[in-house]
Structure formats: C-alpha cells, structure tokens
Amino acid sequence: MDFIDSAPLPAALAVLALIDGLSVGTLLIPLFFLIAPGRVRTGRILAYLVTITGFYLAIGVLFMLGLVNVIDAASDLLASELGQWLLLTVGAGLFVAGLLVWAADSRRKRLAAAGTPLPESGRILRWRARVLDERASGGAVMGVAIAAGLVEIAGMLPYLIGMTMLAGAPLSASARFAYLAGYCVVMVLPALVLLVTRIVAAPLVAAPLERLTAWFQRTGAENTSWILCIIGFLVARTATKSLGIPLPIIG
C-alpha cells in the first residue's frame, strides 16, 4: 500500500493491472486456448481478450462516472479519524476474508481428494469446454469472456483500487479515460505475451504452459486468499499508522 500510495500514478496503475492480469478471466482461460491440441486458435484468443478488455473498460467508465462527483467528499472522509477507523475495519475484514477463502479452498481440496466434485472447478471446466469446442461461434467465446468478467469483477480488488485512484486523480476527463484504457490493455499483456511466445516457440513452451495452467487452476483460490490477506494487512497497517496505534507487529 505504501508503494501504491507513493509511486507515480502510471507505475501504480501498471502494477495493479499486472496483478489483475493473473486472474482466471484474464490468464487461465486464455491458457486453455494456448494448450489446446493442434494449431493455435489465435482468432479466438484475440476475440476473447478484446471482449474482456472491452468489458472492464466499460465497467471502469461507469465506475468513474459514478465516482467523480463524490470523490472529494470520500477523500475528506478517509482523511478524518472516522475514515481511518473505517479503513482499519475494512483492512481487518479483507484479511479475515482471505483466511476464510483459504479455509474454504482447503475444504474443497479435501473433498476433491475424497472424490466429491467441486462447484468452482466445474464452472471453469464448462467454460473451457465451451471456448474450445470446434463448433463454438465468436459469440460463444465473447459470452464466456463477459461471464468470466461478471463472476470476477467483485473480487478484483486491484482493479477497484485502480479505478478509485483514477477517479480521484487531478486529471482531465480525456486523460482519465486514456489511463483507464491503458490499464485494461496492460491487464491482458501477460496473456498476449504467452500467445506470442506460443506462436513463435511452440515446441519449447507447450509443456511449460500445460504445467502453468494446471498450477493456476489448482492454486487460484489460494492466490486469491493471499491477495486479500496482503491488501487487508497493508490497508490496516496504513490506518494504524495514521491513528497512532502502537502495534509493532504491523508497524
């Protein structure tokens, strides 16, 4: 949080966007395209990435249009003692939420070991089957992209933090939306880099991509829990510093 607060706006947004680029919607599903047998389905991958980029761009526009008129009031509130206590509460809540996600993921893994199907894995597998079906239309691929965005949007904390930073930045409307567009492009850069690598050096990267996909699918919830805990910890630490609470363990 200290880095995000002190870094230049473009650098802070780039870091947040790259973190967002490691989600199921922006990386795991494109990886399914990349490891599919046969030739690389470049058209489908690009259609998917353009759609999910456009989805987050549209959400960001709506988000900022709804916040720009109240951002000053929100900033004044957060600068107050009450606001700092609210931040401390939010940070603690995010940290606890991360622990709960980790506990739920551990339970799912125990159920999987016992042969019980996992609802979240089932959803991801259905998305995979739909986008890799040879009969799938462009509309189906775009539908999966939008569905992935809708499912993930509430949990993409870096995205929400980035949009709030943009809404409060002293920028013109055109500059604000240009930053937003850049954020959404950077968000899909990891998938684009893997696509180019897959095309240029297919024999060398096919096996590593399969292992990366398996790892990402296996640890997605665990990664989410870490993000929640880390962001919650940093928000709570910032609030305790502002409030002068002597907590050496997070100071």
UniProtKB/TrEMBL annotation:
The chain crosses the membrane at residues 12-34, 46-71, 83-104, 136-157, 177-201. Pfam families: SfLAP (PF11139). InterPro entries: Gap/Sap. Signal peptide: none annotated. The keyword Metal-binding does not apply. The keyword Membrane applies. Keywords: Membrane, Transmembrane, Transmembrane helix. This is Sap-like sulfolipid-1-addressing protein. It comes from Leucobacter chromiireducens subsp. chromiireducens.
